[in-house]
Structures are given as structure tokens and as C-alpha cells.
Amino acid sequence: MSYKDRKVINIGMVSELTGLSVRQIRYYEERKLIFPNRTEGGTRKYSFSDVEKLIDIANQIEDGMQSSEIKKMQKRKSDRKVRDEMIRGQLNAVFGIRK
Length: 99
Prior knowledge:
By secondary structure, the chain is mainly α. 62% of the residues lie in helices and 7% in strands. Strand 2 and strand 3 (44-46) form a beta hairpin.
């Protein structure tokens, strides 16, 4: 796992890094745009990738996009990523290609 994907940052630090309020960050979680991990005590933990995603979300909202539109875009991007990984796996299985 890359350091960027390790969920180690608390919500206060994410707020400082992104300039978003804690309430905004929680709202994006409620809208299922971001998925922090939770500790046993319930503390949210974010990764650097989550921070980057939150900045992208905030910019899209500022540009006038609705959270539902952003969610649809994220779903399409995720679907494309899965499809690309499947194609890479098939190419590797058939031709021994590793990219």
C-alpha cells in the first residue's frame, strides 16, 4: 500500500490541509463522496489521496456542480478503472504483458 493511501490523518488536519470546514468534510462523507476509515473510538481517519479527492470535490462544487453529479463522475471513473484492470489482466494472461 502506498503512503498516499494509508488512512492516518484526522479530520482537523484534513480541514487545515484543504481549507474546508469539518462540517463540509462530514457533508461530503454523508453524500458518499469520500470514505474515511473509523477507529474503534469512532475517529475518522483520512489518507493523502482522500485529501486530494476532497480538494477536487471542493473545486467542482465551487464550479457549480452538484454532489450527485460528482458522485456519478466518481462512479464512471471507478468503473473505467475496474474495466482497465480487467483488460490488463486478460492481456497479461494471454500475452504475458505486464503494463
